[in-house]
Automatic annotation (TrEMBL):
Bilayer topology term: Single-pass type II membrane protein
Sequence ranges assigned to domain Peptidase S26 in this UniProt record: 15-224
UniProt keywords, alphabetically: Hydrolase, Membrane, Protease, Transmembrane, Transmembrane helix
Transmembrane domains' residue ranges: 21-39
Residues annotated as catalytic: 45, 106
Listed name of the protein: Signal peptidase I
Family affiliation: Belongs to the peptidase S26 family.
Keyword Metal-binding: no
Top-level taxon of origin: Bacteria
UniProt source species: Caulobacter mirabilis
Cell compartment(s), UniProt: Membrane
């Protein structure tokens, strides 16, 4: 081989490698925008259904697409394309209306036009209290007040059943005024009812308020894996702290 051909060959190989990486990144970006996106649960606001360290997969196509489907939420268009409405009880990732950047995850409890109120810890939709049945006690670390939470099985108006936590009576969010959900918006609540700054709390004091349909990112579908107190710099915790019972676990 001519010595002059070696640099050219190396250059061509580098170009091909860059092209291949570019194609891979493009495929990943397309999948992330149009199909699925992973998230890690950072807080206890959705206990007992989602735990800190759960690695979940969100379907981006469930509600169509908005500018928030794209990384960094560029203002390319308004509203949703191929949009479909979430159902009551869906667990949804959305951009908080306060800054349109922070990802939050809550449960949809109120649809446009609904009247929502919490009285003595019991959720009412359009004047009807949702039935709930006590189902033992939960983990004390779920309650900021140090109490042991009561676990309830709540049933919403379409018959969807899911667990919630109640950390005791007379909590700051146990009694609310009536909220009327505006058109094109949704009312979100965390399953850990006494420890969730959700739609019951106005954005100006650190809450969520009503969530515009445009801010929906996708529906939380499955817990792919889950770790407790895992450390990136302690590889043995990747295996020892894996929660085996939450591997490929559906989200209710």
């Amino acid at each position: 081989m001519n010595q002059a051909d070696k640099p050219n060959g190396a250059r061509e190989e580098t170009v091909e490698t860059i092209k291949s990486l570019g194609v891979i990144l493009l495929i990943v970006l397309v999948l992330r925008i149009f199909l699925f996106q992973p998230f890690t649960i950072p807080s206890s606001s959705m206990k007992p259904n989602l735990l800190i360290g759960d690695y979940i997969v969100v379907s981006k196509f469930s509600y169509g697409f908005s500018r928030h489907s794209i990384p960094f939420s560029p203002p390319l268009f308004k509203g949703r394309i191929f949009g479909s409405a979430p159902k009551r009880g869906d667990v949804v990732v959305f951009k908080t209306p306060a800054n349109n950047r922070t990802d939050l995850i809550k449960r949809v409890v109120g649809l446009p036009g609904d009247s929502i109120q919490v009285t003595d810890g019991v959720l009412s939709i359009n004047g009807k209290a949702l039935p709930r049945v006590a189902d033992g006690q939960g983990n004390p670390d779920a309650c900021a007040n140090g109490a042991t939470p009561t676990r309830f099985i709540e049933t919403n108006p379409i018959g969807k059943r899911y667990e919630t936590y109640d950390c005791g009576p007379d909590g700051a969010l146990d009694n609310t005024p009536v909220y009327v959900v505006p058109e094109g918006h949704y009312f979100m609540m965390g399953d850990n009812r006494d420890n969730s700054a959700d739609s019951r709390v106005p954005p100006e004091v650190g809450g969520v308020g009503f969530v515009p349909a445009e801010n929906l990112v996708g529906k939380a579908q499955i817990i792919l894996a889950s770790w407790e107190n895992v450390s990136l710099f302690k590889p043995w915790t990747w295996f020892l702290n894996l929660r085996g019972d939450r591997f490929v676990h559906p989200i209710k």
